Amino acid sequence: MRVHVADHPLVAHKLTVLRQASTPSPVFRQLTEELVTLLAYEATRGISVEEVDIVTPVAPTTGTHLTTPRPMVVPILRAGLGMLEGMTRLLPTAEVGFLGLVRNEETLEAVTYANRLPDDLSGRQCYLLDPMLATGGTLVAAIDYLFERGARNVTCITLLCAPEGLDTVEKAVGDRADVTIVTASIDERLNERGYIVPGLGDAGDRLYGVV
Ligand SMILES: O=P(O)(O)OC[C@H]1O[C@H](OP(=O)(O)OP(=O)(O)O)[C@H](O)[C@@H]1O
Ligand SMILES: O=c1cc[nH]c(=O)[nH]1
Ligand SMILES: [Mg+2]
Fold first, then answer.
1. Closest Cα to atom 6, ligand 2: which residue?
2. Which of 49, 47, 52, 51 is nearest to 72 (CA)?
3. Which residues share a beta bridge with 210?
4. What is the pLDDT of residues 184-209, one digit of tens each?
5. What confidence tens digit (pLDDT) does each residue in 96-116 have?
6. Which CDD domains does this entry report, sorted A to Z (predicted)?
7. Which of 99, 77, 75, 76 has the alpha carbon at shortest distance from 88?
8. In 3-state terms, what secondary structure has residue 61?
9. How far does the centroid of ligand 2 lie from the alpha carbon of residue 10, in Å?
10. Closest Cα to residue 47, out of 73, 21, 24, 10?
11. Residue 111 · residue 181 · CB < 8 Å
């Protein structure tokens, strides 16, 4: 498993504002989108392309196109939905699947409540979106759903990771597939309630309110 931490002053600045408890929900949403677009630039560095012959108004030339099948973007509801717009702005031809998972805040186990993915993901480059990788339970379950459908190339874009969660995902994935995590930060640790420290709180609640 590869882990890439985006080292860019704009990412660091936006993340700092995002973390602040005083940042209101509309600004939090806007910054999440902006951060995803910056991270997606890094995350799509290995996207499959092919050469194409084209004609400009001046001369024939050879250019580059994304290959088919189209990339598959999968936001993990709820909080991952806040990342979708920023991702599809960069990858407008992507198809979008959905996974709904919520962490039981007592046991910290991920529970699935929605799954809308194509049956066959073999040969597809898949991009999972979730701002928070805490214990790693949610991401392991999401990666498993993609593997079950034949995906072998999965890039996960997160805003924050806990070192404990990264270890868990790495152990679960092993050398089964080509998995990359692109993140804005690896934070210090998890606290006793499974929250990332210093983190940013509950990403879903900050995006959409407490339900
Ligand atoms: O790594 P884990 O310990 O599994 O925790 C991370 C998960 O927790 C958050 O979602 P949450 O369960 O709060 O659902 P929400 O997006 O609906 O708020 C977050 O968006 C991840 O999906
Ligand atoms: O810090 C955390 C951990 C899990 N989920 C969140 O939204 N935040
Ligand atoms: Mg939440």
1. 202
2. 47
3. none
4. 999 999 999 999 999 999 999 999 99
5. 999 999 999 999 999 999 999
6. PRTases_typeI
7. 75
8. strand
9. 23
10. 73
11. no
What is the 3-class SS of 66-92, one letter each residue?
ECCCCCEEEEEECHHHHHHHHHHHHCC
Where are the extended beta strands (E) located within 44-192? 49-55, 60-66, 72-77, 95-96, 98-103, 110-116, 125-129, 132-133, 153-161, 178-186, 189-190
Burial class (CB in 10 A: 0-12, 13-18, 19+), 5: middle
CATH level 3 topology of 2-49+64-195: Rossmann fold (3.40.50)
What pLDDT is stored for residue 174 in this prediction?
A: 87
List pocket residues of ligand 2, CB cut-off 6 Å.
79, 132, 134, 194-196, 199, 202-204
Could you tell me the residue ranges of all domains in the chain?
2-49+64-195
Joined tokens for residue 138: 């949610």
Residue 66 Cα to ligand 2 midpoint, Å, equals: 34
Structure token pair of residue 95: 């198809």
What is the Å distance from ligand 3's center to 164 Cα?
Answer: 18
Q: What is the DSSP letter of 39?
A: H
